Amino acid sequence: MKIIAINSSMRKGRTYELLTNIGKKLDYDFEIINLKDYKINYCLGCEVCIKKDYCVIKDDVEKLKEKLINADGIIISTPVYIENISGALKTFFDRNCKWVHRSELIGKPVLLVSTTAGSGLKEVLNYLESVVISWGMKPCGKIGRKIQEKKDVSSEELQLFIDNIEGKSKKEIIKLSRLIRFQVQKAMSTNLLDLDKHFWEKNGLIIKSYFYEENTKINPISKFISNQFGKFLSKKIRENAQKVKIQGGDKIG
Ligand SMILES: Cc1cc2nc3c(=O)[nH]c(=O)nc-3n(C[C@H](O)[C@H](O)[C@H](O)COP(=O)(O)O)c2cc1C
């Protein structure tokens, strides 16, 4: 089993120390990727990745993506910078915005880690969770530490991640908010861009209630509500697209 851990601090400080600590407790092939050692340019905002499925920037992002895609589990870590994630990690996230449309990490277990001098830990860990959920990943815990806390990472904090890597986890409860979010992504992806639609069809996501359904517990009422919401949203998006087309046609005419 291969675990890739991303350290998005520009130094080997407390965040790196925590990752090293985690690595020692995991009996797997463990690699820490320090983003500072890779060339990661800013996203240009051209959306070519979304619309044409390639990135115009030639740097190390593709290499990093491959490492994540091939990993059995991923750890994403960041120091709290101005109540948020580090700029390096945000740049890396921006460069992978295609994954919100066509994720290559669906169902992959992910552990989230953050360090701080005092503030922002909860908000940053929640933000990280929100990103990985939009990529269809499987969140398996959040570990946060204040720098003055010298507490090691405990086995309990790693258990869910380990269970998921080994395929021994209990059923994951997918809440209504996550189901709704999936439906929003589905409605956008299947009605606005052929490339996305093809991906969602090819991967069977079009008929699913969530990115992955095995080993999950989904309340039937929540499933029904979110599915209905998805259908409603799809209809609205199609109607809107039609209106824009007609108005565009009128103008030309
Ligand atoms: C640019 C910058 C911004 C920071 N912003 C915050 C902050 O908003 N709140 C906070 O409590 N600590 C803040 N810190 C402190 C770091 O979160 C803390 O030192 C972190 O654990 C450093 O991780 P590292 O040792 O892995 O680099 C900031 C540090 C830097 C360098």
From TrEMBL:
Gene3D superfamilies on file: 3.40.50.360
Domain NADPH-dependent FMN reductase-like: 1-141
Pfam families, per database record: FMN_red
UniProt entry keywords in alphabetical sequence: Flavoprotein, FMN
Protein's name according to its UniProt entry: NAD(P)H-dependent oxidoreductase
Species of the source: Marinitoga aeolica
The organism's taxonomic lineage, starting at the top: Bacteria, Thermotogati, Thermotogota, Thermotogae, Petrotogales
